[in-house]
Amino acid sequence: MPKPSTTKWTRKHLLGLEDLSAAEITTILDAADKCFPYAMGRKAAPQTLKGRTVLNLFCEDSTRTRTSFTLAAERLGARVIQFHAATSSLSKRESLLDTARNVEAMGLEAIVIRHPERGAPQQVAEAVRCAVLNAGDDAHEHPTQALLDFLAMRHHFGRLDRLTVAVVGDVRHSRVARSNLYGLKKLGSRLVFVGPPVFLEGIDDIRVPVETTTDFDAVLPRCDAVMMLRVQFERHEGIVFDADDYIRGYQLTPRRLARAKPGAIVLHPGPVNRGIELPDDVTDGLQSAILHQVTCGVAVRMAALNLCIGAVDRERKAAKKPARKGF
Ligand code: NCD
Q1: Which CATH architecture has domain 13-140+293-320?
Q2: Does residue 269's CB lie within 6 angstroms of at least one atom of ligand 1?
Q3: pLDDT tier at 226 (50, 70, 90 boundaries)?
Q4: Cα gap 57→59, rounded to integer Å
Protein backbone atom coordinates (compact mmCIF):
# COMPACT_ATOMS: atom_id res chain seq x y z
CA MET A 1 0.00 0.00 0.00
CA PRO A 2 1.23 3.56 -0.66
CA LYS A 3 2.27 5.70 2.30
CA PRO A 4 -0.72 7.42 3.92
CA SER A 5 -0.89 11.16 3.35
CA THR A 6 -0.13 13.41 6.31
CA THR A 7 -1.54 16.49 4.56
CA LYS A 8 -4.38 18.06 6.50
CA TRP A 9 -7.46 18.93 4.46
CA THR A 10 -8.34 22.62 4.65
CA ARG A 11 -10.70 23.20 1.70
CA LYS A 12 -14.42 23.87 2.04
CA HIS A 13 -15.05 23.12 -1.60
CA LEU A 14 -14.25 20.28 -3.96
CA LEU A 15 -14.53 21.88 -7.38
CA GLY A 16 -12.01 20.03 -9.51
CA LEU A 17 -8.77 18.08 -9.50
CA GLU A 18 -6.85 20.66 -11.51
CA ASP A 19 -6.42 22.71 -8.32
CA LEU A 20 -5.59 19.88 -5.92
CA SER A 21 -2.11 18.64 -5.03
CA ALA A 22 -1.14 14.97 -5.13
CA ALA A 23 -1.04 15.03 -1.32
CA GLU A 24 -4.61 16.39 -1.10
CA ILE A 25 -5.83 13.72 -3.52
CA THR A 26 -4.15 11.06 -1.38
CA THR A 27 -5.74 12.54 1.76
CA ILE A 28 -9.23 12.09 0.26
CA LEU A 29 -8.44 8.57 -0.94
CA ASP A 30 -7.09 7.59 2.50
CA ALA A 31 -10.25 8.99 4.12
CA ALA A 32 -12.35 7.10 1.54
CA ASP A 33 -10.60 3.86 2.46
CA LYS A 34 -11.61 4.44 6.09
CA CYS A 35 -15.24 4.91 4.91
CA PHE A 36 -15.13 1.92 2.56
CA PRO A 37 -16.28 -0.72 5.11
CA TYR A 38 -19.47 1.36 5.60
CA ALA A 39 -20.10 2.22 1.94
CA MET A 40 -22.51 -0.64 1.28
CA GLY A 41 -24.50 0.19 4.42
CA ARG A 42 -24.13 -3.28 5.94
CA LYS A 43 -22.23 -1.89 8.88
CA ALA A 44 -23.34 1.34 10.58
CA ALA A 45 -20.92 4.21 9.97
CA PRO A 46 -19.88 6.71 12.65
CA GLN A 47 -22.56 9.44 12.54
CA THR A 48 -20.13 12.29 11.85
CA LEU A 49 -22.71 14.34 9.95
CA LYS A 50 -25.65 13.85 12.31
CA GLY A 51 -27.89 16.91 12.35
CA ARG A 52 -26.29 18.28 9.14
CA THR A 53 -28.10 19.05 5.91
CA VAL A 54 -26.84 18.48 2.38
CA LEU A 55 -28.64 19.76 -0.72
CA ASN A 56 -28.36 17.86 -3.99
CA LEU A 57 -28.77 20.61 -6.58
CA PHE A 58 -28.84 18.66 -9.84
CA CYS A 59 -29.58 20.60 -13.01
CA GLU A 60 -28.73 17.61 -15.25
CA ASP A 61 -29.84 13.99 -15.16
CA SER A 62 -28.01 11.56 -12.95
CA THR A 63 -28.43 8.07 -11.55
CA ARG A 64 -25.13 7.01 -9.95
CA THR A 65 -23.81 10.37 -8.78
CA ARG A 66 -27.04 11.61 -7.19
CA THR A 67 -27.79 8.28 -5.51
CA SER A 68 -24.25 7.89 -4.35
CA PHE A 69 -24.02 11.39 -2.81
CA THR A 70 -27.39 10.78 -1.14
CA LEU A 71 -26.34 7.45 0.35
CA ALA A 72 -22.95 8.83 1.38
CA ALA A 73 -24.53 11.72 3.29
CA GLU A 74 -27.27 9.56 4.82
CA ARG A 75 -24.85 6.86 5.96
CA LEU A 76 -23.01 9.55 7.92
CA GLY A 77 -26.28 10.69 9.54
CA ALA A 78 -26.98 13.80 7.42
CA ARG A 79 -30.35 14.77 6.02
CA VAL A 80 -30.41 15.17 2.25
CA ILE A 81 -32.72 17.49 0.33
CA GLN A 82 -33.21 16.68 -3.33
CA PHE A 83 -33.55 19.75 -5.50
CA HIS A 84 -35.19 19.16 -8.86
CA ALA A 85 -34.37 21.94 -11.31
CA ALA A 86 -37.41 21.38 -13.53
CA THR A 87 -39.94 21.81 -10.70
CA SER A 88 -38.07 24.63 -8.89
CA SER A 89 -38.11 28.40 -9.33
CA LEU A 90 -35.18 28.02 -11.72
CA SER A 91 -37.97 27.41 -14.20
CA LYS A 92 -39.30 30.89 -13.24
CA ARG A 93 -35.87 32.26 -14.17
CA GLU A 94 -34.59 32.66 -10.64
CA SER A 95 -30.83 32.67 -11.12
CA LEU A 96 -28.67 29.80 -9.93
CA LEU A 97 -26.84 32.05 -7.49
CA ASP A 98 -30.08 33.41 -5.98
CA THR A 99 -31.34 29.86 -5.69
CA ALA A 100 -28.15 28.79 -3.90
CA ARG A 101 -28.16 31.79 -1.53
CA ASN A 102 -31.83 31.21 -0.67
CA VAL A 103 -31.52 27.53 0.06
CA GLU A 104 -28.41 28.22 2.12
CA ALA A 105 -30.41 30.71 4.21
CA MET A 106 -32.58 27.78 5.34
CA GLY A 107 -29.51 26.21 6.98
CA LEU A 108 -27.25 23.91 4.98
CA GLU A 109 -23.76 22.59 5.44
CA ALA A 110 -23.14 21.52 1.84
CA ILE A 111 -24.43 21.93 -1.70
CA VAL A 112 -23.68 19.18 -4.22
CA ILE A 113 -24.14 20.66 -7.67
CA ARG A 114 -24.32 19.26 -11.18
CA HIS A 115 -24.79 21.87 -13.88
CA PRO A 116 -24.60 22.07 -17.69
CA GLU A 117 -22.46 25.24 -17.56
CA ARG A 118 -18.73 25.09 -17.07
CA GLY A 119 -17.71 26.95 -13.91
CA ALA A 120 -21.19 27.02 -12.31
CA PRO A 121 -20.02 25.20 -9.12
CA GLN A 122 -17.18 27.71 -8.73
CA GLN A 123 -19.65 30.60 -9.01
CA VAL A 124 -21.94 29.03 -6.42
CA ALA A 125 -18.95 28.49 -4.11
CA GLU A 126 -18.15 32.20 -4.34
CA ALA A 127 -21.76 33.11 -3.49
CA VAL A 128 -22.34 30.95 -0.39
CA ARG A 129 -20.59 30.10 2.88
CA CYS A 130 -21.37 26.38 3.01
CA ALA A 131 -19.32 23.67 1.30
CA VAL A 132 -19.78 23.17 -2.45
CA LEU A 133 -19.00 19.88 -4.16
CA ASN A 134 -18.93 19.66 -7.93
CA ALA A 135 -20.91 16.67 -9.22
CA GLY A 136 -20.06 17.52 -12.85
CA ASP A 137 -20.05 20.79 -14.80
CA ASP A 138 -20.41 20.58 -18.57
CA ALA A 139 -17.34 18.91 -20.11
CA HIS A 140 -15.11 20.52 -17.47
CA GLU A 141 -14.60 18.54 -14.24
CA HIS A 142 -16.16 15.70 -12.29
CA PRO A 143 -13.78 15.38 -9.36
CA THR A 144 -15.55 12.71 -7.30
CA GLN A 145 -15.85 10.47 -10.37
CA ALA A 146 -12.10 10.62 -10.97
CA LEU A 147 -11.42 10.07 -7.27
CA LEU A 148 -13.57 6.95 -7.26
CA ASP A 149 -11.74 5.75 -10.37
CA PHE A 150 -8.45 6.27 -8.50
CA LEU A 151 -9.72 4.41 -5.43
CA ALA A 152 -10.81 1.44 -7.57
CA MET A 153 -7.39 1.43 -9.30
CA ARG A 154 -5.55 1.74 -5.99
CA HIS A 155 -7.50 -1.23 -4.63
CA HIS A 156 -6.45 -3.28 -7.65
CA PHE A 157 -2.83 -2.18 -8.17
CA GLY A 158 -1.92 -1.09 -4.63
CA ARG A 159 -0.53 2.18 -6.02
CA LEU A 160 -1.39 5.06 -8.33
CA ASP A 161 2.00 5.86 -9.79
CA ARG A 162 3.73 4.26 -12.78
CA LEU A 163 0.44 3.12 -14.31
CA THR A 164 -0.59 3.62 -17.91
CA VAL A 165 -4.27 4.33 -18.35
CA ALA A 166 -5.98 4.63 -21.74
CA VAL A 167 -9.07 6.87 -21.64
CA VAL A 168 -11.03 5.86 -24.70
CA GLY A 169 -13.85 7.38 -26.72
CA ASP A 170 -15.76 10.63 -26.46
CA VAL A 171 -12.94 12.56 -24.77
CA ARG A 172 -14.15 15.83 -26.24
CA HIS A 173 -17.39 15.87 -24.24
CA SER A 174 -16.04 14.20 -21.12
CA ARG A 175 -15.52 15.86 -17.75
CA VAL A 176 -14.48 12.43 -16.48
CA ALA A 177 -11.54 12.36 -18.92
CA ARG A 178 -10.38 15.82 -17.85
CA SER A 179 -10.55 15.18 -14.09
CA ASN A 180 -8.73 11.86 -14.56
CA LEU A 181 -6.02 13.57 -16.56
CA TYR A 182 -5.41 16.32 -13.98
CA GLY A 183 -5.36 13.86 -11.09
CA LEU A 184 -3.43 10.93 -12.57
CA LYS A 185 -0.65 13.15 -13.88
CA LYS A 186 -0.10 14.58 -10.41
CA LEU A 187 -0.02 11.10 -8.95
CA GLY A 188 2.76 10.05 -11.34
CA SER A 189 0.85 7.94 -13.87
CA ARG A 190 0.63 8.19 -17.61
CA LEU A 191 -2.62 8.80 -19.39
CA VAL A 192 -3.36 8.44 -23.10
CA PHE A 193 -6.50 9.79 -24.73
CA VAL A 194 -7.70 7.44 -27.47
CA GLY A 195 -10.49 8.02 -29.97
CA PRO A 196 -11.46 8.97 -33.49
CA PRO A 197 -10.31 12.44 -34.62
CA VAL A 198 -13.77 13.93 -34.06
CA PHE A 199 -13.55 13.08 -30.33
CA LEU A 200 -9.95 14.24 -29.93
CA GLU A 201 -10.76 17.68 -31.33
CA GLY A 202 -12.14 20.47 -29.15
CA ILE A 203 -9.97 19.69 -26.16
CA ASP A 204 -7.85 22.88 -26.24
CA ASP A 205 -9.33 23.93 -22.90
CA ILE A 206 -6.98 21.34 -21.35
CA ARG A 207 -3.91 23.18 -20.12
CA VAL A 208 -1.60 20.24 -19.45
CA PRO A 209 0.19 18.19 -22.11
CA VAL A 210 -1.47 14.91 -22.95
CA GLU A 211 -0.65 12.06 -25.33
CA THR A 212 -3.43 11.37 -27.83
CA THR A 213 -3.81 8.64 -30.43
CA THR A 214 -6.42 7.33 -32.83
CA ASP A 215 -4.82 3.86 -32.78
CA PHE A 216 -6.46 1.91 -29.96
CA ASP A 217 -4.87 -1.42 -30.88
CA ALA A 218 -1.36 0.02 -30.81
CA VAL A 219 -1.73 1.52 -27.34
CA LEU A 220 -3.29 -1.50 -25.60
CA PRO A 221 -0.11 -3.51 -24.88
CA ARG A 222 1.07 -0.63 -22.63
CA CYS A 223 -2.18 -0.37 -20.65
CA ASP A 224 -2.70 -1.31 -17.00
CA ALA A 225 -6.23 0.06 -17.11
CA VAL A 226 -8.61 0.85 -19.94
CA MET A 227 -11.20 3.48 -19.10
CA MET A 228 -14.02 3.46 -21.62
CA LEU A 229 -16.07 6.64 -21.87
CA ARG A 230 -19.73 6.82 -22.74
CA VAL A 231 -20.48 8.17 -26.21
CA GLN A 232 -22.40 11.28 -25.09
CA PHE A 233 -25.03 11.46 -27.81
CA GLU A 234 -26.90 14.24 -26.01
CA ARG A 235 -23.92 16.57 -26.59
CA HIS A 236 -23.44 15.69 -30.26
CA GLU A 237 -25.14 18.57 -32.00
CA GLY A 238 -23.45 18.99 -35.39
CA ILE A 239 -21.28 15.87 -35.03
CA VAL A 240 -21.51 13.07 -37.58
CA PHE A 241 -21.19 9.76 -35.77
CA ASP A 242 -21.13 6.40 -37.51
CA ALA A 243 -21.79 3.70 -34.90
CA ASP A 244 -20.44 0.86 -37.06
CA ASP A 245 -17.16 2.67 -37.69
CA TYR A 246 -16.87 3.52 -34.05
CA ILE A 247 -17.48 -0.04 -32.91
CA ARG A 248 -14.88 -1.30 -35.39
CA GLY A 249 -12.20 1.08 -34.17
CA TYR A 250 -12.96 1.63 -30.52
CA GLN A 251 -15.22 -0.96 -28.93
CA LEU A 252 -13.28 -2.87 -26.28
CA THR A 253 -13.90 -6.41 -27.50
CA PRO A 254 -12.51 -9.47 -25.64
CA ARG A 255 -9.89 -9.75 -28.41
CA ARG A 256 -8.76 -6.20 -27.90
CA LEU A 257 -8.73 -6.57 -24.12
CA ALA A 258 -6.47 -9.63 -24.49
CA ARG A 259 -3.83 -7.29 -25.98
CA ALA A 260 -3.65 -5.15 -22.79
CA LYS A 261 -1.16 -5.99 -20.02
CA PRO A 262 -1.96 -9.17 -18.09
CA GLY A 263 -4.15 -8.21 -15.12
CA ALA A 264 -5.42 -5.05 -16.82
CA ILE A 265 -8.76 -3.75 -15.59
CA VAL A 266 -11.70 -2.20 -17.41
CA LEU A 267 -13.31 0.96 -16.07
CA HIS A 268 -16.38 2.93 -17.18
CA PRO A 269 -18.10 5.82 -15.36
CA GLY A 270 -21.54 4.63 -16.42
CA PRO A 271 -24.06 4.63 -17.86
CA VAL A 272 -22.64 2.11 -20.36
CA ASN A 273 -24.01 2.14 -23.91
CA ARG A 274 -23.93 -1.65 -24.10
CA GLY A 275 -22.94 -2.79 -27.57
CA ILE A 276 -21.21 0.50 -28.39
CA GLU A 277 -18.28 1.17 -26.03
CA LEU A 278 -18.39 -2.28 -24.51
CA PRO A 279 -19.95 -5.64 -25.35
CA ASP A 280 -21.79 -7.46 -22.55
CA ASP A 281 -19.06 -10.05 -22.00
CA VAL A 282 -16.49 -7.35 -21.21
CA THR A 283 -18.90 -5.10 -19.25
CA ASP A 284 -19.76 -8.04 -17.01
CA GLY A 285 -16.47 -9.94 -17.39
CA LEU A 286 -13.79 -10.84 -14.87
CA GLN A 287 -11.59 -7.84 -15.69
CA SER A 288 -14.43 -5.34 -15.26
CA ALA A 289 -14.10 -3.05 -12.22
CA ILE A 290 -17.27 -1.14 -13.12
CA LEU A 291 -19.42 -2.16 -10.15
CA HIS A 292 -16.48 -1.84 -7.78
CA GLN A 293 -16.13 1.75 -9.04
CA VAL A 294 -19.74 2.38 -8.03
CA THR A 295 -19.12 1.14 -4.47
CA CYS A 296 -15.94 3.23 -4.29
CA GLY A 297 -18.10 6.21 -5.27
CA VAL A 298 -20.07 6.05 -2.03
CA ALA A 299 -16.86 5.84 0.03
CA VAL A 300 -15.23 8.74 -1.84
CA ARG A 301 -18.33 10.93 -1.40
CA MET A 302 -18.55 10.07 2.33
CA ALA A 303 -14.91 11.18 2.66
CA ALA A 304 -15.40 14.33 0.57
CA LEU A 305 -18.49 15.40 2.55
CA ASN A 306 -16.75 14.73 5.88
CA LEU A 307 -13.65 16.68 4.86
CA CYS A 308 -15.42 19.68 3.30
CA ILE A 309 -18.04 19.98 6.06
CA GLY A 310 -15.19 19.66 8.59
CA ALA A 311 -13.62 22.75 7.00
CA VAL A 312 -16.96 24.62 7.19
CA ASP A 313 -17.17 23.75 10.91
CA ARG A 314 -13.67 25.06 11.56
CA GLU A 315 -14.48 28.28 9.73
CA ARG A 316 -17.72 28.77 11.68
CA LYS A 317 -15.93 28.10 14.96
CA ALA A 318 -13.19 30.58 14.14
CA ALA A 319 -15.79 33.21 13.21
CA LYS A 320 -17.45 32.78 16.65
CA LYS A 321 -14.24 33.38 18.64
CA PRO A 322 -14.25 36.84 20.24
CA ALA A 323 -11.74 39.21 18.67
CA ARG A 324 -8.57 39.58 20.73
CA LYS A 325 -8.40 42.75 22.77
CA GLY A 326 -5.68 45.33 22.17
CA PHE A 327 -3.73 45.89 18.98
C1 NCD B 1 -20.56 10.67 -16.12
C2 NCD B 1 -21.08 12.08 -16.13
O3 NCD B 1 -22.23 12.35 -15.83
O4 NCD B 1 -20.28 12.92 -16.46
N5 NCD B 1 -21.31 9.73 -15.43
C6 NCD B 1 -21.35 9.68 -14.09
O7 NCD B 1 -21.25 10.66 -13.39
N8 NCD B 1 -21.50 8.45 -13.56
C9 NCD B 1 -20.23 10.24 -17.49
C10 NCD B 1 -21.34 10.08 -18.47
O11 NCD B 1 -22.48 10.48 -18.23
O12 NCD B 1 -21.04 9.58 -19.54
Answers
A1: 3-Layer(aba) Sandwich (3.40)
A2: yes
A3: very high
A4: 6
